Amino acid sequence: MIRVLIADDQPLIRAGVAALLDAEPDMDVVGVAADGGEALDLARTTDPDVACLDIRMPVRDGIEVARALAGPEADSPVPVLMLTTFDLDDYVFGALEAGASGFLLKDADPDTIVTAVRQVAAGNGTIDQALTRRVLREFVSRRRLQPVTGDRADGLLTERERDVLFLLAQGMSNEQIADELVVEVSTVKSHVARILPKLGVRSRLQAVVWAYQNRIVAVPGSDEESTAGR
């Protein structure tokens, strides 16, 4: 059962997302908060598997809450999925840099939201497809989230780990990567678990962003796309 915490300052949104997720047989909404302060209090007492947070909330905003729950200082990190009406780049950047594992617009269809919660709970990042290319291009230009440089990665990652990261950055699931490399899914999960701390990131999504920043892969449609790769 996936335990979900929901935080949004709009009553209708809170009720709608809670009803949507509670209706799923593998999900249990364990807390509903109207502001960021309440969200943090509930997170401490309900032990959620995923926190679905609005970005703009009173008391403490969603980015601040995400940082407390999923950032590098979090003792027991909680995967965070941001749900927001705002698709401004700075909000997306702030959420990802705070440690969020996913970012969706609230007008996403219900099935997409449900799938995103499952993906984040499973340790997979997700981001609204309408934002992906723009966000990746901007991250590349801003050079953020680079605790390890591309040159150092050559010495830190094994050849197989680089293969996994390359395929991860193509948007492949663990199962698809396993098929591509002809290995067990459990082996892929083990590689990913080793890659994240080596790169100094907390989520698969941040590992993908790192891969684009360090030119392991190129942003789709960019001039570098034909030259990047393993």
In short:
Keywords: DNA-binding, Phosphoprotein, Transcription, Transcription regulation. The protein has 230 residues and is α/β, with parallel strands linked by helices.
How far the N terminus sits from the C terminus, by CA atoms, comes to: 38 Å
Largest sheet data:
6 strands, parallel
Q: List low-confidence stretches.
A: 224-230
Superfamily (CATH H level) name of the largest domain = Response regulator
Q: How many domains would you count in the coordinates?
A: 2
Report the portion of residues in β strands: 5-15%
Mean pLDDT: 82
Q: What does this protein structure show overall?
A:
Residues 3-121 form the Response regulatory domain. Keywords: DNA-binding, Phosphoprotein, Transcription, Transcription regulation. GO terms for molecular function: DNA binding. It comes from Tersicoccus solisilvae. Residues 150-215 form the HTH luxR-type domain. With 230 residues, this protein is of the alpha/beta class. It folds into two domains: 2-127, Rossmann fold (3-Layer(aba) Sandwich), CATH 3.40.50; 147-213, Arc Repressor Mutant, subunit A. It has eleven helices and six strands. It has a six-stranded parallel β-sheet with strand order 2-1-3-4-5-6, sandwiched between helices. α1 (11-22) links the parallel β1 and β2 (27-33). The N and C termini lie far apart (38 Å). The model is unreliable at 224-230 (pLDDT under 50).
